[in-house]
Amino acid sequence: MIRPVTRPVTQPTWLLASDLDRTLIYSGRAMRLGEPVPEPVCVEHHQGKPTSFVSPVALARLVVLSRQAPFVPVTTRTCAQYARVRLPGVRVRHAVAANGAALLVDGRRCPDWDAQVAQNLAGSAAYAEGRAALAPVLDRPWVRKVRDADEHFVYAVFERGRVDRDWFAELAEAGRALGWLLSVQGRKAYLIPEPLTKEAAVAEVAARSGMTRVAAAGDSLLDRGLLEHADLAVRPAHGELHDAGWEPPGLRVTRQAGGRAAEEIVEVLAGALEG
Question: Which of 27, 87, 181, 202 has a CA positioned 20 to 30 A from the CA of residue 166?
Fold first, then answer.
């Protein structure tokens, strides 16, 4: 008698991690960087106004993917800013906020990770010290406001039409003196302690989830480490990394920019599960 062959149920090994702003979700202006997206879905309101959108094609595919493998939003947004984002139908157990300073489990901060972050930052300039050192460089007429991210890092919102281009070099130099990294994204300039990284938090989530491989997406300098450490990496054809021409071997780059890029990014993440 021929015995039936029984195959073990294959468990997912891939963790899918993606930056949010200008990678999966977009402001109205950023959505128009490429070809138009028909009927984009609003995923964020702020002060009663719609502020962030996603391609309906990308969202529908992401809903399916999030049920096939762990999907982890990874953002430089503070916890409060991240909480404004709603991706309808997408299953999220873990999320990374504040550029890795916060690890959220079912929407709640993980105190164990908070303690680890404090330990990681012990050798860097404290927030108060860094904020004071940066104050003279941030006090410029084109800076509309300066904000702290839960006293982990600082960012400035500036007027692009008025900014002195030498200012970015000044910011970068001031940041280097503190051991902080500068990243310019749209109208915002972020200065973040170098030990505070997205990739460290994602590695923690992978370990907790038992996932052995990571597929990641992102568009900015703050996503570079995440992409470098991933087994599969993709970025859109716009953003800080694109402007710098960053394209190491193995990196996938979308054909389109803007909101349409999200559709390609989600397909690349899906491809990890398929093959």
Answer: 27
Backbone dihedral region for residue 247 (phi beyond 0: left; psi -120 to 50: alpha; all else: beta): beta
Q: Which residue in 9, 11, 74, 20 sits closest to 209, CA to CA?
A: 11
- Cα–Cα dist 149/164, whole Å: 25
Length of the chain: 275
CA distance linking residue 166 with residue 142, whole number of Å: 13
| pTM for the structure as a whole | 0.91
Q: Does residue 74 have a pLDDT over 90?
A: yes
Token pair belonging to 104: 């959220």
For the chain, where are the alpha helices, taking DSSP H only?
28-31, 56-65, 79-83, 111-120, 127-138, 166-178, 198-209, 224-229, 240-243, 259-274
| 258, 34 Cβ separation under 8 angstroms | yes
Residue 226 forms beta bridges with which residues?
none
